[in-house]
Design a protein that fits this description.
The structure holds two protein chains of two kinds.
Chain A lengths: L6 E4 L10 H13 L3 E4 L11 H4 L1 H17 L4 E4 L2 H16 L1 H13 L10 E4 H8 L1 H8 L8 E4 L9 H4 L27 H8 L3 E2 L19 H17 L4 E4 L2 H16 L9 E3 H8 L17 H6 L4
Parallel strand pairs in A: 1-2, 1-3, 3-4, 5-6, 5-7, 7-8
Helix pairs in contact in A: 1-12, 3-4, 3-5, 4-5, 7-9, 10-11
Chain B lengths: L13 E2 L5 E2 L2 E2 L7 E2 L9 H9 L14 H5 L1 H6 L5 H10 L2 H5 L2 H4 L7 H5 L6 H14 L7 H16 L4 H11 L22 H12 L3 H12 L8 H13 L8
Antiparallel strand pairs in B: 1-4, 2-3
The chains are: A alpha/beta, B mainly alpha.
The structure holds iron/sulfur cluster (2 copies).
Chain lengths: ~325, ~260
């Protein structure tokens, strides 16, 4: 434990400062309780998410390099992002900057032109969950828990990009064909096909995890949530029905995009009268916050469109 | 040996008689199957070259057609088996652009879940490569606007303008592009959800915090809708970004 660092740069991403503020607020609570520290990355820009990379390669490199540069300027070599999309984008840029000299040089040149400090090294990005697990871990969560999540049957939903692809986040093996191999094993990473960090953290807080494979890493429709309703609806239906039929009374999430997509399609599926889709969703940090003794308002549970409050009340957790 | 592409053989080219006797020998059924040959002349080898020029496309050359990507792909497995990443890579490398064009109705459906990239034993960045194929096709005018393209463009232009995105703008702006009538206030031209002609689920979604008196949530989102969040030190950087994107042909045509 303790390889990543206790004080890191915090890249919340656009979503966490808008509609998903519940994730931001609860993250800050959990981080404080676990004795860690996040240093807000002042004046960051959007990572380009899963959209910009489809229209521009260099553009997304620049967007992420600017954020990396801000982190270095504040003295950080580690960035933590709570969103699967943000951590993916930063890691993807990290991969290309590490493995392709030409990209690295070009990016630095362009940064200078745009009045941004060029990168003299490349900071590493970690997902919030990976950081919390490695720097605090289940033991610390257990110590802090004052209101165990007893009776809560959780389907732990990790989504796509927390574990995938390993090239960007774990190893640079077979790096893009420039003849140079730079394997880098990332010791802190979760298991890539059977992730368990969220399961263990919530179990440490007294919850019970239900069996949720393979839907725990099935896509929710992600970047196509708005542009491809048919596919997204089907994917979310599969996820929710598996959770419900495996006995979950709540879905724990760790990405604002997944969370929004699940909640939005859950409601639409319910309006259409589809069965077994009514499991509500909460960020794992909201659940940890409750376990640490915070109130429904503290962790902004009212913001959740799927309204998990009744379930939690019934179990005496909220 | 390449995997035999059944989908490249049109049904008209498959000749097979139920009953056939030649020189007294019964060759009924599969014994007499003939596939009329087809000469492919309109392949374009520059197509693959152009894909490889982009750093996110160059791993296309490492593909050995094992189909791990397709086997992992949820769009292939749960939506439409015509969506086949291995096949798209095969066609792109051979430069069979017209065959790719026949599949544009499914090609854009990739949800970027990265199962393909994650599992590819040859280190092909499959998801990236597929997006580059679409990008090059679009640039060459081989395909028009498809739904996710419009969204990507809309999203990216908002990032370029402000440095940050705003959920309300994305959601209502997108609904407007879909043909819903979004009512706007006369001065700032910002959407007013309640007087707009939007689907029931969206109306209910917006009214939940109001019904529950979740004031701080309403205030925060209203503030963002009125005053778009921005990155402060953005202007100089934005110019560079815009230029780079123009060079890549990434900005909307005419915009
Ligand atoms: S998994 Fe990789 S090598 Fe195999 S077909 Fe797909 S892209 Fe090609
Ligand atoms: S990223 Fe796209 S092509 Fe790859 S597995 Fe996912 S949906 Fe299929």
């Amino acid at each position: 434990m303790g390889i990543i660092g206790k004080r890191v740069a915090y890249y919340p991403g656009c979503s966490l400062e808008g509609a998903s503020r519940a994730y931001d607020v609860s993250t800050r609570i959990v981080v404080k309780e676990l004795g860690l520290e996040l240093d807000y990355l002042e004046d960051y820009n959007c990572c380009g998410a899963m959209e910009s990379k489809n229209v521009t390669f260099m553009g997304t490199m620049l967007l992420n390099a600017r954020n990396m540069s801000l982190a270095l300027k504040r003295g950080h070599k580690v960035i933590v992002a709570p969103c699967n999309g943000c951590s993916f984008s930063l890691q993807r840029a990290e991969y290309f900057l590490e493995t392709d000299r030409k990209v690295f040089e070009k990016v630095n040149e362009l940064l200078k032109e745009g009045d941004v400090d060029p990168l003299d090294e490349i900071p590493h990005t970690y997902h919030l969950l990976e950081w919390l697990y490695n720097e605090a871990g289940p033991q610390k969560v257990k110590e802090r828990t004052v209101r165990p999540l007893k009776g809560l049957k959780v389907a732990n939903y990790y989504g796509c990009l927390y574990t995938r692809p390993h090239f960007y986040s774990r190893t640079y093996a077979h790096a893009g064909g420039n003849g140079e191999e730079r394997p880098r094993k990332r010791e802190t990473a979760d298991d890539d096909e059977h992730p368990f960090y969220m399961n263990e953290l919530l179990e440490a807080a007294g919850a019970e995890s239900v069996y949720f494979e393979p839907m725990h890493t099935q896509c929710c429709g992600g970047p196509h949530s708005l542009s491809d309703e048919d596919v997204s609806k089907k994917f979310v239906m599969m996820i929710l029905q598996t959770a419900k039929r495996n006995g979950a009374n709540i879905i724990a999430t760790e990405c604002p995009l997944c969370h929004a997509s699940l909640e939005m399609y859950r409601y639409r599926l319910m309006l259409e009268g589809i069965e077994d889709v009514d499991v509500p969703a909460a960020y794992f940090t909201q659940l940890l916050g409750l376990a640490f003794g915070y109130s429904v308002d503290d962790v902004k549970l009212k913001d959740n469109l799927s309204d998990p409050i009744p379930v939690l009340r019934r179990l005496g957790i909220a | 040996m390449p995997i035999h592409e059944r989908s490249l053989i049109e049904s008209e080219r498959v000749l097979r008689k139920e009953r056939l006797v030649i020189d007294g020998i019964d060759v009924s059924g599969d014994w007499n199957l003939i596939i009329l040959p087809r000469t492919v002349e309109d392949y374009d080898l520059d197509f693959a070259k152009e894909i490889m020029e982009s750093p996110d496309g160059k791993t296309i050359q490492q593909c050995y057609q094992c189909s791990y990507c397709t086997a992992s792909c949820p769009v292939h497995n749960y939506w439409d088996d015509r969506y086949n990443p291995r096949h798209f890579i095969y066609l792109a490398r051979l430069g069979m652009v017209d065959e790719l064009q026949k599949r544009v109705d499914v090609m854009w459906r990739c949800v970027s879940c990265h199962k393909c990239t994650h599992r590819c034993p040859k280190g092909v960045l499959v998801e990236d490569v597929l997006k580059v194929i679409l990008r090059v096709m679009y640039k060459r005018g081989l395909i028009g606007d498809y739904p996710s393209k419009k969204f990507d463009q809309f999203f990216t232009e908002s990032v370029l303008e402000y440095g940050r995105i705003e959920d309300g703008e994305l959601l209502f702006g997108w609904m407007e592009k879909q043909g819903y009538k979004i009512k706007k206030d006369p001065i700032l031209r910002k959407p007013i959800p309640f007087f707009s002609d939007i689907p029931r689920w969206l109306k209910d979604m917006v009214s939940k915090p109001i019904k529950e008196g979740n004031i701080s949530f309403i205030m925060l989102n209203a503030k963002h809708m009125l005053f778009h969040p921005r990155t402060k030190e953005w202007n100089k950087f934005k110019q560079v970004l815009r230029r780079v994107m123009e060079e890549e042909g990434a900005l909307a045509k005419g915009g």
